[in-house]
Write a structure and sequence with these properties.
alpha+beta, Arc Repressor Mutant, subunit A, 3-stranded antiparallel beta sheet, 15% strand
Length: 67
């Protein structure tokens, strides 16, 4: 469980872009995102793994819209 929503500035540019891509498509096959990025975004509570792919959480949608 996360204590707070991470700030977009806490993500690397690669993590932030991956999150935006996942949010933009609503479902991304797990193989299309680097495994380390997947684990980090899941650990931060920004995406979750379901049905063989990655789906954004409500927190992930909020962070993806931050600049």
């Amino acid at each position: 469980m996360i204590d707070r929503i991470p700030n977009a500035r806490e993500l690397t540019p690669e993590e932030f872009q991956s999150l935006r891509n996942i949010v933009g498509s609503s479902f991304t096959p797990a193989g299309s995102v680097n495994k380390l990025l997947q684990k980090r975004l899941i650990a931060l509570g920004l995406v979750h793994y379901a049905m063989g792919g990655l789906m954004p959480t409500p927190a992930g949608r909020i962070v993806a819209r931050m600049q």
